[in-house]
Every structure is written in C-alpha cells, then in structure tokens.
Amino acid sequence: MKVSKLLGERFKEAPKDCSIESHALMMRGGYMKYLSNGSYSLFMPAKRITRKIENIIREEMDRIDGQEVLMPVVMPATIWEESGRYTSIGSEMARLKDRSGNNMVLGMTHEEAAVHLARDTAKSYADFPFMIYQIQTKFRDEPRCRGGLIRVREFTMKDAYSFHTSQEDLEQYYDLCYTAYERIFARAGAKNVIGVKSDSGMMGGKVSHEFMLLTEIGEDTLAICPECGYKANMEAAECVVENETAVELAPLTKVHTPDAKTIEEVAKYLSVNDKNLCKAVVYQQNKDDKYVVVFVRGDLEVNETKLRNYLKEEIHPAFITEESGIVEGFIGPMNLPKHAKVIFDASTKGLTNAVCGANEVDYHYAGFNIERDYGKVDYVDVAKIYEGAICPVCGKPVISISRGIEVGNIFQLGTKYTESMDMTYLDADGVAKHPIMGCYGIGVGRLAASICQESHDKYGPIWPMSIAPWQVEVCNLRRDNDKVNETADMLYAELTKAGVEVLYDDRDIRPGAMFADADLLGVPVRVVVSPKTCDRDVVEVSFRDKSFKADIAIGSAVEEIAKLVKAELAKYDI
Amino acid sequence: MKVSKLLGERFKEAPKDCSIESHALMMRGGYMKYLSNGSYSLFMPAKRITRKIENIIREEMDRIDGQEVLMPVVMPATIWEESGRYTSIGSEMARLKDRSGNNMVLGMTHEEAAVHLARDTAKSYADFPFMIYQIQTKFRDEPRCRGGLIRVREFTMKDAYSFHTSQEDLEQYYDLCYTAYERIFARAGAKNVIGVKSDSGMMGGKVSHEFMLLTEIGEDTLAICPECGYKANMEAAECVVENETAVELAPLTKVHTPDAKTIEEVAKYLSVNDKNLCKAVVYQQNKDDKYVVVFVRGDLEVNETKLRNYLKEEIHPAFITEESGIVEGFIGPMNLPKHAKVIFDASTKGLTNAVCGANEVDYHYAGFNIERDYGKVDYVDVAKIYEGAICPVCGKPVISISRGIEVGNIFQLGTKYTESMDMTYLDADGVAKHPIMGCYGIGVGRLAASICQESHDKYGPIWPMSIAPWQVEVCNLRRDNDKVNETADMLYAELTKAGVEVLYDDRDIRPGAMFADADLLGVPVRVVVSPKTCDRDVVEVSFRDKSFKADIAIGSAVEEIAKLVKAELAKYDI
Fold first, then answer.
1. Which end of chain A is more exposed for a tag (fewer CB within 10 A), N or C?
2. Which percentage of chain A shows pLDDT scores above 90?
3. B57 reaches A (C-beta below 8 A)
C-alpha cells in the first residue's frame, strides 16, 4: 500500500473530545472517523488490525472445536420474549418495527439466537457437547460511550455459545475456553491481561470471569491478592472484615448528637472510631420506589452492583421525603419505618457496642449490639472491597486495587436460556433434559484500542507485529533522487513479493512529516531510504519500539528485513 | 470436523415453502435455519462457503487497489437527509430511534457513509483516485423475500466505492472492476455469469451493469443478442421496432366497435393486425394519483421500470373512476381528458392508418396518423423487449430472452452524492470540484445460493472446490471394524496435517444414510473406507460431480488425495 493513496488524514492536534491517549492517537493516525455517538467508520489501517485480531480469535476458537456460524443482527422480538429479556433489558437494546409492523431488535448479544439455532437440531445426548461462535456486528445503545473504540454503540464481537449435558462437562470446556482466551490475548500482543472473577449481571448464571487489560484508564476496578493470586472484579469481590469484639456489652443508650449527621461528624462528636459505627445508606427500587436501607460498617462503602444482584432489582440512590418517616442523617435499625427493606452488610456482623442512628433528629444510639437490640439478621455481602482489605481466599490483609479494561468475558450460564426457550435433548435413558450453556465474548475493536492504550508512546501506537496494520514501512526520503527512488521502489516490490506486508511512503514531503506519520501508523519495522544511506549502499532499519536499529546493505536488505519480520512474528506464535 | 458433532440437521423432505431447488437443498443439508421473514442463521458449512467467497472477493478488491474499511450498520439519519434519500427511499429502509430519540437507519447501502468517510480526508486531486470497500451486514426490508438466501432482508454484502477526478478515470476504473468481477465469479466456480447493461434505479448515475447468473429460476429477465453480444437487463434494453408505413394515408374515421374493448377484440372486429393498433395502458402516479396514459403498439407491453425511470415517479396500475372521464376499453389520444399525462412509446412512431380508442363507449378511430391527427409528440422508449426483437446494437431481429439472478452490480454514479453531501477537492488549478463516484456490490449469500442453484443434482449441492465447505469427506462405513477405523482416523489426521480441509463422518450409521448426508454436504472429494476396501488395502475415492472415481492404495492415499485437491483448486486459480 502506498501512503500517497491511503485514505485517512494524519494530524498533530488531538481532538478535544479525546480524554484517553489511545483514542487521540487512533483519531490522529487516521484509523477511524466519528460518524455518530459511539459509532465510527474504520479506515484501512484499523480494519487490517481488527481483521488480524479476528483471525487469531478464529484460529483459537477452531482449536477448541468451535463451529463458526452467523446469526442475524436484526432479530424478531419473539425469541427475546421467550427468554424474558425483551422486557427485562432496558433501552440499551435498540428496537424497531419492520414494514409489517413486527417488533424487531438489534442484537447486543445472541444467547436467544444461539438457542434458536441449536434447538431441534441437537436432540440426542450424543450430539453434545458443541460450541458455536460468530464474529459479527453488535449494537448496544450505551448511555455513556467513551474512549473511542473502548466503549461504543456498534462494535464487532466474537461471541461463542457452548452446550453441555452436565455441569462437569461445561466446567471442563470453560477451562479450555479460559486457556484459549489467554492464548488469544498473548498472540494479539496484549501484555497485561488477567482473568478475574466477575459478576454475571444480566446474563444469568453463576460462575463467570472477565479478562482485564490492566491500565489506569480502565473503567473497571479489580481486587488482586499478590499473595495467593486471587483476582476479582470489585463487583464480585467479597469484602471480608474482622471486627474487634468487646469483652463486655455496654447498655444501649440514646445520646444527643446535635447536627452530627455524617459519619465523620458522629465519630468526632462521640470520639469513636468509624469502624465502630453502623452506617446507613439508603436506596430506592426503580420499579416501586420502595426504600432499601443498607447498614454497613462506618468505614466502608456499598457496592451498588453487589446490592443490585442481591435484590435482583434495579435501584437508585434514595430521594428521602418527609412522608417516608426516614430521618436523614440519623437513620438506624431501630424504629425505622416498617415499609423500608433493611439489609445488614456482612461487615456489621460482630460489631459490638456500636453507634447507630436513633431515627430521631439529633439523636444516635451508643452501645448498639445488633442481635441483642435488633434481633437475628441475615448478613449479606454488599460492601466495596478496598486497598489493603483481607483477601477472601488466603485471608491476608493485602488486597491491592487496580484498574482495567474488560477485553473478554466467559460465563457459565446454566439452563436459564435452554429452560425458558425449551431446548431439550434426550439423555442416555431417554429422558428429556435441558442442556447447560456457557457463553464467551471478546470485543474486537475494544481489544485493538486497549492494545494501543498499553502499547504506545507520545508519537503514536506501537503495534505488536502480530496485529500491526503492516509489517514494514519503507520511507522514501527523496523522490527526486534516482538511487533513492530505485532502492525504495525495489524494496516495496521485492518485500511484497517475499510475502511481507509493506506500507510505502512514496510522498514528496519533508522527512519530519513523514516520520511523524510513520509513528502514528505504528508499523513495527521502519526502513529509511535516503541519499545518505544510498551513498553508503545501505538502508536504515529500525523498530518502532526502539529495540533494534541497524544499517543493512541494500543487496541483502530484502532477505534481512524478511528475517526480522519472521523473528518478530514468531514471538507471538505460541 | 467430525460429522457426529456438526450442528445442523440433514433430512429428506424439502420444507413446504421451498419453491427453488437450491433453497430446498440448503435447508435439507443443514446449511441454514429460518429465523424470521427473510432472515436466516447460517450453520458452519454455509459460513465456511461464504467466508471462502468473501476471501476471493477481498483478494480481487485488493488486486485493484481497494482499501478495506468498515462503516457502521446503524447510521444517523442526518447523512441520509444530506443526500435526500432519507425521504426518497421507502419502507425498504428500516428506521429506528436511539435512546436519545435520534433518527437512525439500518444501512441497505453505504454511499452516504462512504462520502462521509472520504470527505475532508481526500482534499487534493493528488489523493485521487481511490477505492474503499467493506464486507458487511446489510438490512433491506424486502417486501418479497424468496428462494432462501437468494432474496433476504439481512445479508452480507461486499460494497465498494471509488472516487475520481474525471469521467475518463472513473471509466477506466469501472472497466478494471468489471474484470475483477469476472474473476471473482470464475474463481468462485460460477459458470454462467454474464455482465448486462442495467437500469440504475435509485442509485442515480447513468452507466451501470449487472452480473447475472443465468438460470431459469432467476427473477430478472435479460435480452441477449447472439449475433453481436449485446446483453441488457430487460429494464435497460431498448425496444426497437420497424413499422410498415402505408403509402397513402387514410382519413381518420370513427368506427362503431360494440363491446370490443381488448386489443384482441378490436383487432378481430376490425380485421386488422395488432401491430396496427395504438394501445393505451393506464397508470397512476403514487404521489398524486395523476393518470398516466401510455400509448404503445398493440402487440407490445409496457415495461413499468422504464416508465418509472422516465417519469422519475413511482407509479401503479390505474384504478379508473367514472369521474376521471377516461373511458376504459376505448381510450385513445384524441379527446382524452386534459388532466392525464400522455406518453407515446417509440413503437408508435411511424404507425400509419392505425386504430385507436375514441374515448367514447363502443367507438374507435381507424385511419389514425399520430402527427397528422394528434400533433407533434416526443416518443419515449418504455416498451418491453421480446424474444425475436430487433437488437438495438446490430439491428438483427434475433434478441433472445433469458432469466438470471443478479449476483453483482457496478454503477457509474457521477456526482449525485458528492454534490448533495458537498464533498470537494482542489484540482491542480486550485479550483474546488466534486469527485466523481462509482459503486460496486456483490451479495455474498446470494452468490453462494446461486452457485448451488447452478451446480447441484437431486441429491444435493455440488460445490466447486474453491468455495466448498470442506475439500474432502472421509466416510467411515464401519465403526466396529478395527482396520476401517484405523484407516479412516489416519486419513482424517494425516490429510488435515497436510493442509487439506477434511470432514470426517465418524458416525455409526448405515452407508445409505451416510452417503445421503454426504451428497447434501456436497464436498467435492469423497473417500470411502469400508471392510471391502480395506481387504484390498485401498480406499475408494470419487468426486461429487462424478468426474473421477478410483481405488487408491491406503499407503499412498494421503499424498494422492492431497494431489487431487490441489489439481482441482488450481482450476479456479486463474
């Protein structure tokens, strides 16, 4: 490909709306163009990168016996009604009517379509297990698009669905898929991707993992134990605390706490540690505005996703009215209006002689002991884990908090979809059963952008050889010099003939501008041909990541450069 | 791949809604599953076929310097408003609102998105010409889906858009693309594809060609001249006639023609040839119900598409009311109500002493001579060409009518989109100009189905080696025989290792059922391993198209079969 004809502009200034470097670099490098909110057209370099990623994914899915299929983007609402998700999913699912007035949806995921495809065709236990996958366009009407290709509304996704006759078989396959994902990210050149336990969200099912590319600009927060290797999304990480138990229980005493509404104010006013406070956090359920009062240890926060999952309800922070009878700033377990749902976080278990609100303006209780004063409660884990928290696996107080971008996820779905959509098979005894499913996703564009985020300098992306848009860029520094022209033309032709993917900058522009563009295109191997190098019968070969630089004789350049490319590629050929 | 795990059912009875053989065979062979009107999920065999077709297309597009890009499926209505097509395209374009209430459309074609992508990035004449293409999902809300993948609502399409600074440059590139298309169809194994002149329809522009796979089940009708090679879609074929001119003009005479309303009745009643009748065909414009009366020679029909293109209006056959003043069965040019639009087809030019309606119940005129009795008229070509018609190029009366499926099309678009969407570049003199566009489409699934239609027997598809889902199928006829098992397993493993794509039927079923399934899967080379062949230390190798059958020694089978595959593949490697 010649740069002179390559569509897409490269420029110096980052667009104003780019808060993330990879976004800015991919805009500045002519990788993509904004079309509408969360929707981009990809120019050739980005398309080449994503296609290479797709090919890596395809090879790894085929390696674990995946069958590539293709399901429609536009689906009839009927199959989503079967699973119940037509109503349970909100406005992130785009809906339309076809010319006959039928309700249709745009696929944001394809569990329903996968079950539709597989049911009636896999009827006997002998047909199992199998996995189908596709690499296809999805539309998810995200309320908050960000970071260029990191969070968009339309994206290319690999989604896979496996079907099994036993939980053990699913778990075995799940592990295979886990390993396939590790291979995919490694082959694509993503260096810092880890699998973490995750929350299954709207997918249903119990066990699930996310693959997180670690970066400080990640939207997700992860809890990692450096001692035992425990890794979980904060939303799935159990918050374990130890409470000091007092030897003697103090009596419950109402105390006057004028104007002490916040934890800090109460702790200061009563001179107690915030770890001895029983803090109230109030939400309302979206469906009926019912109040949900969560009691959590004073030094901790509530993780709303954990709470949402426990309640199986959408919630929002409460708007506390006068009529509610809830006394903001002084909320406690006792005398709370009966209409409110009360939840005790596990961190309040074992609290002794605690301080809590008295449900009366300017009053708190001291000497509060939950079981003695309030009664038996079921403790629930809804608190947010924190830096230095106790690892729920090894018990050491060494949890470290990181940030990451979710580049893939795998779920053990169970029978949620096969039951609701009535997919059955006959087992060896002739009994009809519902197969057990797993599902496995990777966002292709997001992975490309994440790799850019992890692998760039201030001048542009540094693409790994395995997914680079081209392998070698030849820079012709002097179009008006015969020997330079001949040499550069020859390298373009001969390297291409040798099977190397070459980008050829054949433009008549200043070296500085040419190198700036080359940096933005991030091609791993750069070959500079100039009058100076030609005088010495060499070309100057360097790596974009600065790990290699050498003059190579023109006579052996094709062979040597092809060798360098091959050696670089081999690093990703695991 | 092992058939025992291949998802998709193969069965004997064609589904009731399959009127076309390829549709029936692709349903029976487990290639696809109906999801909703005009929408199918593809199983692995179909996905493999379409992916191979896509790869062929990609290689040929790259060969003519195409840049692969990716544009969104879901587009903002705004860019379609710029071009004017948001209102001019009817209900075949699916529309929806996003969560913010913005109007969005599903892409049925991408001229607007292509101009959006290219404008502001190609600013100088030196950036031209260039071509961008994508292989991507389209949704077109077809009123009449048919033939399985032949006419669907959701489909995968390769669409390409080229941009030029002169008409000559466009024409040169257009020819390159024409050749690339011929190569694509030949490489995919389509035997009877011809390029025909076509009507440009809603695309705009003047010159366009369709690539038609000739088959009697085709929806399109083509006019072909076996003498000079003229080929055109009927909608684009000029209908040329010769009228015998009378030596003496007869006087215009009103004649009583009781109950003679049809051409046949009038011709019979007045004992004249239908070629001497001036027939009226009446339509109404959709937008205002205005009547359009077309006069055409009595033996000919009106081609509605040609009429529509001339009028630049949507039309429908007229519902003639009493108030209209139009006298059904006796319509003629004279005394016709003034509100009707009158069109004379070119076939009426030179008619002498003709018969036409008198616009009065039970009366016609004889001796009608258009220019003498009615006045000067502009003749327009809106008649349907017919078998044996005069070739508009070489003038011989040998036009033959064929049917075909449109598997690709190419258009010279001109500046319709670059003008309406204001894409400009600076030419060498610094003057801003609109680039000239071409666009080029191929429907991937339709091509697959069309090849199946042209290449099948009653047992199943006969896939060309270049797009076959697998290259070789190994049939293990006796799972309980050690030598058969060993040999078949070995062939599966070793052929796969040798780079051959092998489907392995490892099921414990009757040979008849296994062969029936193999016929439906249409794999070009079949290798049968049975106790009989093993006793003779051979396997039985045959081609699905019956062109080859031989016993091959087990010891050399891998090598020999790989050679056969290579030789077959080479036939498509043009």
1. C
2. 92
3. no
Place of tokens 């695309």: B203
Tokens of B353: 């002493």
Does residue A389 register a pLDDT over 70?
Answer: yes
β-bridge mates for residue A193, sequence order? A213
> Both tokens of residue A295?
């009691």
- Closest chain B residue to A125 measured between Cα atoms? B5
pLDDT of A246 reads 83
Q: Are A272 and A265 in contact (CB under 8 A)?
A: no
Q: Test B39 with A9 for CB contact under 8 angstroms.
A: no
CB contact at 8 A, B379 and B370 = no
In angstroms, the CA B138 to CA B117 distance is 18
Residue B112 has phi, psi (to 5 degrees) of: -65, -45
| Confidence at residue A201, expressed as pLDDT on a 0 to 100 scale | 58
CA distance A170 to A538: 58
Q: What is the pTM of this model?
A: 0.92
Contact B39 A75 (CB under 8 A): yes
- Residue B179 to residues A443, B184, B185, B194, B206, Cα–Cα distance (Å): 37, 9, 10, 11, 20
Structure tokens at A533: 């190098």
- Residue pair A409/A209 in contact by the 8 Å Cβ criterion: yes
How many angstroms separate the CA atoms of B236 and B233, rounded?
A: 5
Nearest to B35 among A30, A95, A116 (CB): A116
Tell me how long chain B is: 574
pLDDT single digits (tens) B404-458: 999 999 999 999 999 999 999 999 999 999 999 999 999 999 999 999 999 999 9
What pLDDT, in 10s, does the model give residues A470-495?
999 999 999 999 999 999 999 999 99
Q: Which of B444, B440, B435, B418 is closest to B160 using CA atoms?
A: B440
Residue closest to A504 by CA, chosen among A519, A518, A492, A517? A492
- The whole-angstrom separation of Cα A51 and Cα A48 is 5
Indicate the pLDDT class of residue A206, thresholds 50, 70 and 90.
confident
